Amino acid sequence: MAGALLCSGDCRIRNVPSLADVKRMGQVLSALGVRLEQHDDILEINASEIKTSKAPYELVTQLRASFFAIGAILARLGVAQMPLPGGCAIGARPVDLHVRGLQAMGAEVQIEHGICHAFVPGKSGRLQGAKIYLDIASVGATENLMMAATLAEGETIIENAAREPEVVDLANFCISMGANIKGAGTSTITILGVPKLHSTDYTIIPDRIEAGTFLVAGAITRSEFTLSPVVSDHLLPIIAKLRNIGVPVIEEGSDCLHILSAETLKATDIETLPYPGFPTDMQAPFMSLLSLSEGDSLINESVFENRLRHASELNRLGADIRIKGNTAFVRGVPLLSGAPVIATDLRAAAALVLAGLAAEGQTTIQGLHHLDRGYDQLDVKLQQLGAKILRVEAKTPVETHFVSNTTLPEQSIQI
Q1: Tell me: the pLDDT tens digits for 99-127?
Q2: Do 62 and 179 fall into the same domain?
Q3: Domain shared by 135 and 267, yes or no
Q4: Annotated catalytic, 7?
Q5: Residues in a beta bridge with 158
Q6: Which domain-ending residue is among 186, 203, 220?
Q7: Are 339 and 415 in contact (CB under 8 A)?
Q8: What is the mean predicted confidence (pLDDT) over 12-32?
Q9: Which of 7, 11, 88, 174 is catalytic?
Q10: Domain of residue 113, residue span
Q11: What's the gap between Cα 344 and its chain centre?
Q12: What is the longest distance spanned by two Cα atoms in the chain?
């Protein structure tokens, strides 16, 4: 959606899920003057007239991904004002890599009162190609700078670039609009800037984290089903860990996986790493699974420094998890017992749903605004697989971590 800002014509994006974050990003783009229409999973975007370079504070602070628009806005208009981002409270995730990269491309950037002000000096108003080395292989910085470079003058080389499938997909989206990008999916991406981009009709890749969540759902409930469409290559570290735990996963072609019931769930160790390592977004769901696996498991969260808060909620369900720093020590227990719990972030919410599926008795999960940020009707899809899961209005409100102009009733899921 941020990449569509680079195009002065119509963009059609297919396979778009109905997520709170998608709607919020749409609000950010609408505030900039972009026209959007969504029909089912098709999103029509027209950014021919960007009326302002300033994104609204109250929206950007709710969604970290909206900050990724600064590169595209700056490339199109030569000026951009973007509040510092929000999102799940799972770590600092500073934007210094984004800022230094834009500065290397000739932009003047200042951060004052929580607003990032950027402009391109000179008559041309165009960013200049540059050689950029990222201290960390950041997905967000890679994507932001890659988008900015598509309309820059000359060649930009991003070294130590993130290799995630989402980076490749964004590069392919930009290429479909006429961008000249090579090396996406490797640690070095080369972009030769072009004067303008054209309209496109593009289908995005399936969500590997949603697919992984369903695989863990099958494993934790000892179930058997087929999952499609997926990109199996994107799920290799997840499939490998499931097999280590004792869960049979059969690849039936490049876009279909069949998961079988496991006889025994065995302990294993996990360390989260940038792609192609084990994804940090699957750490919480796997913690739920390992809490019911025989033996002692160790989970080391090396990507974010504040992403183990769901452990205390899993312990409410009867799990045996100890936290020291960014490491979780998980001792498998024979069973979990239903209890009221509260989701602390997006993937923690999914982990609690999975634990609730396997727990004896009823589990009630509050904080669904987190879950709805990244899963399109997860409860409905699980119902279709036979889960006894129901979304209800919560009897008591819980603290939410976002600001809204309207007060919505807090909901909970009962499993």
Answers
A1: 999 999 999 999 888 888 999 998 788 99
A2: yes
A3: no
A4: no
A5: 132, 189
A6: 203
A7: no
A8: 95
A9: 88
A10: 3-203
A11: 16
A12: 69
